[in-house]
Amino acid sequence: MKDELRAPETRGVTVELLATVDLGPEIEGMAGRVLRMRRVTIEPGGVFGPVHDHRDRPGTVFILQGTITDHRDGVATDYGPGVGWPEDRNTWHWLENRGEVAAVEISVDIVRQP
Length: 114
Known about the structure:
Blueprint: E1 11-22, E2 33-53, E3 59-65, E4 68-72, E5 75-79, E6 84-87, E7 92-96, E8 103-112
Antiparallel strand pairs: 1-2, 2-7, 2-8, 3-6, 3-8, 4-5, 4-7
């Protein structure tokens, strides 16, 4: 069984909303969409799961502190401070912090307004 099929539920994660921009008035065809920026903290041993995708919710991530392990396509990749990655419609993954310090990322994505 691929490791992304065994992804645990979320634990040890704090999400802080930093800013939003209503894209409807900004870009034609984007009514009902928001550009969102969040700070996500994953404590040591924490998991941002279960497996989730980014269809209809593209974004980017940038690591500020610690190391985040990104599990996708059966491969676990560690990302440390100063590194980021895209999350597009083909992204199907889950994240964890295997380290001994809190991992902090800035996540920016486009989402439908609640």
